[in-house]
Design a protein that fits this description.
This protein is α/β, with parallel strands linked by helices. The protein is built from five helices and five strands, in the order βββαβαβααα. A five-stranded mixed sheet has the order 3-2-1-4-5, sandwiched between helices.
Length: about 140
């Protein structure tokens, strides 16, 4: 399994099977870093011992996710938005963070629809970006 995470207290999450099938995509607003840190081990449990965690972002939250993943035997790949956006977006679609998020929502909706699973009723930009992080990891990074 591959879990892609758009880091933040408002976190985007997308879970893929090893063969690249999207299992689910969602977001969660944990309200505080403390509550998020307490939730991380349970979120990671399905990946224990053979999963891959793909993190986009940095700071203290990145360290919390990475440390919890390593305790569960999960491989961690850390990247920045520019790593995946440059492969998936035209320059004009990412001139500002706001433009990039709008484009991410559109692209994610289209790709999720193609995946055969029902798109969430309200796809947030965090969830859309988490999906695209996982999509990029499986289709560009691993290739």
């Amino acid at each position: 399994m591959v879990l892609a995470v758009d880091l933040g207290v408002k976190t985007g999450l997308a879970l893929f099977s090893k063969n690249g099938q999207l299992r689910w995509v969602r977001s969660g607003n944990f309200g505080s870093a403390t509550r998020l840190k307490k939730a991380i081990p349970a979120i990671l449990a399905p990946l224990a011992n053979d999963g891959i965690l793909v993190l986009e972002g940095g700071g203290d939250l990145k360290n919390s996710w990475s440390n919890a993943a390593k305790l569960q035997g999960i491989t961690v790949v850390a990247l920045q938005a520019s790593d995946w956006r440059n492969d998936l977006f035209y320059s004009r679609d990412q001139r500002t963070g706001k433009q990039a998020k709008i484009h991410a929502l559109k692209m994610a909706h289209n790709l999720i629809r193609e995946s055969g699973i029902a798109a969430p009723k309200s796809l947030t930009d965090d969830a859309a970006e988490a999906f695209l992080i996982g999509y990029w990891f499986l289709n560009y990074y691993l290739m």
